[in-house]
What does this fold into?
Amino acid sequence: MPATETFLIPQHKRHVLRARQRVRKVLADWGVTGELADGVTLLANELVTNAVTHCRVSYARTRVTLTLHGTELLLEVSDPDRDRLPRLHEPHPDEEGGRGLALVAALADAWGCRQEPYTKCVWARFALAGAEEHVPAGS
It folds into this structure.
């Protein structure tokens, strides 16, 4: 049975820190630490930042879901701006942003995005080494 944690944050950059802290805590509670936890937390930061920066829906909330299932960890970040799918591109060297998805592609084992009826979801999947060590308490 997979372990899942979902939470919502307001659509504002000042709440990205709260999302990052919550992801870090969930991972620690599940026994996911070290480089994997650092990478998942970094990508959560990138994806939540993208969601709160680019979503054009007023009073929106960003949904963050972490799922631990067998040998995989899945991070999903959703927002209600379903028609604006992210795309990987090569930013100009002088651009301040535009590198987040390249970071996601480099650190995750797989990533992608999908349109749902009222939202879009950007996801990143991570393989767990020694998955038997990452069984959440109470599972």
